[in-house]
Amino acid sequence: MTSQSFFTRTTPVEFAGADSRDPLAFRFYDKDRKVMGKRMEDHLRFSVAYWHSFTWPGGDPFGGETFNRPWMHGGEALDLAKQKAEVAFETFRLLDVPFFAFHDVDVAPEGASLEESNDNLKVITDIFAGKMESAKVRLLWGTANLFSNRRYMAGAATNPDPDVFAYAVGQVKAAIDATHRLGGANYVCWGGREGYETLLNTDMKREYDQLGRFMSMLVDYKHKIGFAGPILIEPKPKEPTKHQYDYDVATVYAFLQKYDLTKDVKLNIEQNHAILAGHSFDHEVKLAFANGIFGSLDINRGDDLLGWDTDQFAMDVKEMALVFHEMLKHGGFTTGGLNFDAKIRRQSIDPDDLLIAHVASMDACARGLLAAEAMLKDEALAGPLAARYAGWDGAEAKAMLAGKMTFEQIAEKALSLNPQPKSGKQEMLEGIVNRYV
Amino acid sequence: MTSQSFFTRTTPVEFAGADSRDPLAFRFYDKDRKVMGKRMEDHLRFSVAYWHSFTWPGGDPFGGETFNRPWMHGGEALDLAKQKAEVAFETFRLLDVPFFAFHDVDVAPEGASLEESNDNLKVITDIFAGKMESAKVRLLWGTANLFSNRRYMAGAATNPDPDVFAYAVGQVKAAIDATHRLGGANYVCWGGREGYETLLNTDMKREYDQLGRFMSMLVDYKHKIGFAGPILIEPKPKEPTKHQYDYDVATVYAFLQKYDLTKDVKLNIEQNHAILAGHSFDHEVKLAFANGIFGSLDINRGDDLLGWDTDQFAMDVKEMALVFHEMLKHGGFTTGGLNFDAKIRRQSIDPDDLLIAHVASMDACARGLLAAEAMLKDEALAGPLAARYAGWDGAEAKAMLAGKMTFEQIAEKALSLNPQPKSGKQEMLEGIVNRYV
Amino acid sequence: MTSQSFFTRTTPVEFAGADSRDPLAFRFYDKDRKVMGKRMEDHLRFSVAYWHSFTWPGGDPFGGETFNRPWMHGGEALDLAKQKAEVAFETFRLLDVPFFAFHDVDVAPEGASLEESNDNLKVITDIFAGKMESAKVRLLWGTANLFSNRRYMAGAATNPDPDVFAYAVGQVKAAIDATHRLGGANYVCWGGREGYETLLNTDMKREYDQLGRFMSMLVDYKHKIGFAGPILIEPKPKEPTKHQYDYDVATVYAFLQKYDLTKDVKLNIEQNHAILAGHSFDHEVKLAFANGIFGSLDINRGDDLLGWDTDQFAMDVKEMALVFHEMLKHGGFTTGGLNFDAKIRRQSIDPDDLLIAHVASMDACARGLLAAEAMLKDEALAGPLAARYAGWDGAEAKAMLAGKMTFEQIAEKALSLNPQPKSGKQEMLEGIVNRYV
Amino acid sequence: MTSQSFFTRTTPVEFAGADSRDPLAFRFYDKDRKVMGKRMEDHLRFSVAYWHSFTWPGGDPFGGETFNRPWMHGGEALDLAKQKAEVAFETFRLLDVPFFAFHDVDVAPEGASLEESNDNLKVITDIFAGKMESAKVRLLWGTANLFSNRRYMAGAATNPDPDVFAYAVGQVKAAIDATHRLGGANYVCWGGREGYETLLNTDMKREYDQLGRFMSMLVDYKHKIGFAGPILIEPKPKEPTKHQYDYDVATVYAFLQKYDLTKDVKLNIEQNHAILAGHSFDHEVKLAFANGIFGSLDINRGDDLLGWDTDQFAMDVKEMALVFHEMLKHGGFTTGGLNFDAKIRRQSIDPDDLLIAHVASMDACARGLLAAEAMLKDEALAGPLAARYAGWDGAEAKAMLAGKMTFEQIAEKALSLNPQPKSGKQEMLEGIVNRYV
What we know:
4 copies of one chain form a homotetramer. With about 425 residues, the first copy, chain A, is of the alpha/beta class. Chain A is built from 17 helices and 12 strands. In chain A, the strands form 3 sheets. Chain A has an 8-stranded parallel barrel, surrounded by 4 helices. In chain A, helix 12 (about 315-330) links the parallel strand 11 (about 295-300) and strand 12 (about 340). Chains in contact: A-B, A-C, A-D, B-C, B-D, C-D. Chains A, B, C, D: One of its GO terms (molecular function) is xylose isomerase activity.
């Protein structure tokens, strides 16, 4: 197999306008179009995820491989990893995306020892570095997989066995070194096994302390090697573990404050993880901004009726418009981007399905971005919002909030008040949003 | 109606031993029995909740009153409130509980103005004070209802209207004053409307800041008047509001840290709120202890298959045994207690159902406490737990955790490690717990 | 109060085109526009629901009235009911809808006896009949409220007390008589209390038999009086009751078959009830059509993150496009319609909010209908669907399905087969749908 | 490896009494103890499941193998299958269970063709037959795995490709032949892929018809070969598929009626599948009995806070007591049994964990059975239940239910009624149940 022959197409997907019916053309994603003064590509900063798109064979808990990718069978591990890299970079080129992201074990085979694994990773890092010289694509982030190998079955940083903790340090060091070497814009930690299956065998306080220590050391190391990007934690409430310590944005914020990490660690927020935690995507993004810990987005969607991570390609324009509206209000991404932590369905076994899925979702994102821009320009939401809270602009209201009145003074003042409720205008606002999407 | 005639029984419910078949006798709750050196009554610190038991008429979103309590009809508001108080104190006496708890509006009618409401509350406070002189029962906590009146429909402290904020201050001042006067052991805040129905009309950051200010002032005021107990926040994720800011223990912990409130504010944790937030009761309690913010418990149960607050009487011995096991490890309650934030089903319309429900649940709690004591004595769970983490007792492991080794040093050390996973023994531990309950 | 003064506007809402920014103008709902040969109005058959819009005061389980409607206070019950009717019919006129729907107790006050209640209903029925002579609006359906009064707390047809069963018969007879008198197109049964709170006190088999009997008698009676429309059952899985017997479409279909009711009883399907049961709206509609029991729709939306019936106004164009696509394939409604079983949020206290909400949702429905029409014309979904199953058009495949081959014959034939999976093309189809909405 | 060396123990687990602390001794399961006149073993009819216990390597969606069973590595497929069989039968012996259950692919490797797969199955069937001659263990049921192989990714009987349908027939024929040869008491169908991932590519009506045809042919074949046991369908709402056609008991009952299968097909009900569908285990069992379609039980438990199938070992005595109470009322199992469709946690990697888990759960079941017996003897639940419905024993009530009164006659009678609600006594009943568990 050559990478060229995996897909039928050889030229990058292009913008063809809203009337196009070609599933391999963009209808809205017009990378050079300016949105609030910046190119669409620079706003959306799309990233293809190595794991779902090139490493996952299509299995689920009740069934095996469906994709039968040529690079997953019948060869020496490193050779197969190189073949996979060929297809991956060809995909990046065809989708014309500016970024990709990977776990160590997605790109390089695990060896019989940590040293061998590290060596494999270095081999692949060199290959990637070479390819990236001539390609457009850059690295949005790297990360280490601390959850698939059985050694991590009871956690990595939070493992009851200190040797596993140490092993995880060794693996993460190699992963952030590789990320640094490749100019990664961020380094991500997803603690899929940092949690518990049962409280009967778990010392939660101790495990949190282990995790705090681990993250503190990683931050120190990042500074030491001059890695400029932030460390990102990706919240997820559960799955694979019954309960994960990085449950949601609020929980991670509590953790970052406790272990004094708010300055160096930001959040990588995912739609599917948000809804598994009982929150809307918009909520999680707004909460992260409110607390100064917004970092990046894993763009995908979960199924509202299912209780596990389906990681489907994001297709809901309205949902994304609201998230991008918040982001644009804050000036958009700095180091972050829209990483497609999304997998084609296991029945989507045609090679082109991989491209079609990305194209359809990139287009939905672009529509969301355009809708957000229009809402912002019109102050469609911001106007009514400011009006709703206008009372707090008064001098006495400001004084209350600034701590310049005591509880008793306010209570005294309240004796003469009889405040009347005002309409929240929810349906009107919903109708307004519908105008834009 | 006299209070005596509401129930058929006139003498307090008594301990009758495990073989009793009388639904109005305790089978396990033997108040003077010593558990780890303390009387059962002093461990469990049961409290009857005024709202569910005396103020709720039995309605639900699709149906009206079912209980037809005599004190809810056909009289002048304050007179009815006094009648209700008669029945309430008679209930406390018959159940032989050491505590009760109330919202301002449960006990005293709202007036046409804040001043009138405050006056009504004072009248009832005097009556309660008089009754409490001769009664055994004390006040576990008081609170203000900042969610039922339409003025609070968009929040109290987090309202877009500063006058509502001020009004809430006025109401809370009166409520904590009343609580203080009655010797309340705690003061509770449940922010049922502190949240949002839609993010389209909500400035979350601003509302969090309002809530932070409100709580800070309340803490200041508490100190000023010499109220010795803690302020307790009761987390709940949703209902009535779509999203509530005091979502769960972790979220409140983030809030307390951000607004520097961890010293004075603790948590009042409820089983039903825990499961609505996606957590086990045990999880929430352990997390609160791990972060030094455990305060008190609202004891009830939710329905695992329903998505709203059913506030049923707690009957699951195993669930409570695990919670009490954690509590006993930390020495049990200080100011907190087991408040029955539980309501009889709306079909339980016989007056005696109110007593029967409390008795059955008190008994289930007592069984849970005895099971917890036995597990602790046997080190049934603590033993295996210590063994599981024993590796961290080693010198090098301690050094890692204490920050005495750098990331690179640990990574270097890891090159020679090949840690093997050990069984988590979950089923064995589950079998052990089954021995005790 | 006069009905005219309740709303600020006096002329019906009109179509103003997609660019309109007026929340009281239609942007897509153009009632005379032809869609697949039929007027939009005749396709969508919008109906305003009396209960949410005129009878619900804005309360929720934690708070009281917010709307303070003039017709809910300070008058004699029948007079208030007449005032309410004035506003209701004015609303129908302003929204220019062809239908409305009601429960008996929404429109007429309950009396002290069944006879008095029936008399009240007759008074109001006469008033309605008078108003309908001159108004455009017709009755989509009537129904009886068998869940709010405490007598029904343990069910109506499924009550353990046969007198309650009889009383329910009496009430339903009056309600279907009124519906018939007013030319109602359907009669609806929603069994909100036909279910159980706990299996500990429930004989499920017996209760199902009671329900079967009740429905059979109702069907007989309908025929006897010449009521031409179908009886509709509205499935809902839970709330108010823990478990309701009419759980979802499949469950009701099982019931209808068992009690031989499939011919006369159809389904009234609601989005919010669908998702509470774990199904998409589209699924429930498709399943009803597949089994020949589709009747009508309650159009609203639930919150995917909440576990109770929020009954919000439907705003999701894509969701409705898929439902209408199915409906159009089957020729659209016969007796059914789109009944707004939707309530404005309790914070939407401005009178105009009631109009704005309907307008925004009617527009979203109209967009959905237009999208469905376009997809059908293009065979955007139907084309790929037919291709996917084309293999079943073969002679042998048809023979298998028609029962013309035995199990052994097919098994024998299978020995020479090695079928290869084909892509399900899910992302491509999702991208296609996004083109239309 | 020899089977003897896999476990440390060589003698069957024995009953040691309630005070035993040995995790490899029964505290309650005393197989010869008589319960309502029948031996415990004959009541509970425990079955070990081949797939979870011997075929699953410990993986989950985010991690690979943890168990490293010797029979899963490094040998020729049939040899490994034989090794596995050794350990399996040794497990049956050590647990002293009367039954086991299997899928075709659990026990025999899939070949390169259907013929080869069938041959492999025959080889293993012969081996099993040989072992079963001398062993105590019998076959509770066999089944075919129609979900793991990629050919079934879009369903088996409901596949869009008729060749897959045919292939499934071929596979099921071999599986029921093997089951018949081994004297299986039932044959099970679990339609894990009979459903859809998206309605966009699904013709639900057609797929239901395919499934109906498939089941009808299977029933015909069963009669033809003289297989005496029932065909059992195992309902599950979702996972792996987004929606499965055999959603829950009610849905399957609708299906069985439509395709005229109620006589020959019964249900195999699982706790974890019940709660995933939003029902209690008890509900599903009661509903199956109410409709005459109860067959067998998959005994396990799900996690109430997780949205996927955790298949944990059942440990909740109360839940099982209520299920067994219903079962005992109906005389207990006929062909069915308690099949442990349960898997040890992936961290439970000690070989003995497999035994410990079964022992702990068998004991919990035994306690549940004893509690059910005691409740039945005391009429603890049956007494109050009969009293609650006693009104229906009256002559007129019976006449109403028997269809001997018309709707109008009952409505007329209702005019003189004013039924008063009676307490549902839920808390009292919950307290009563707590006495027994």
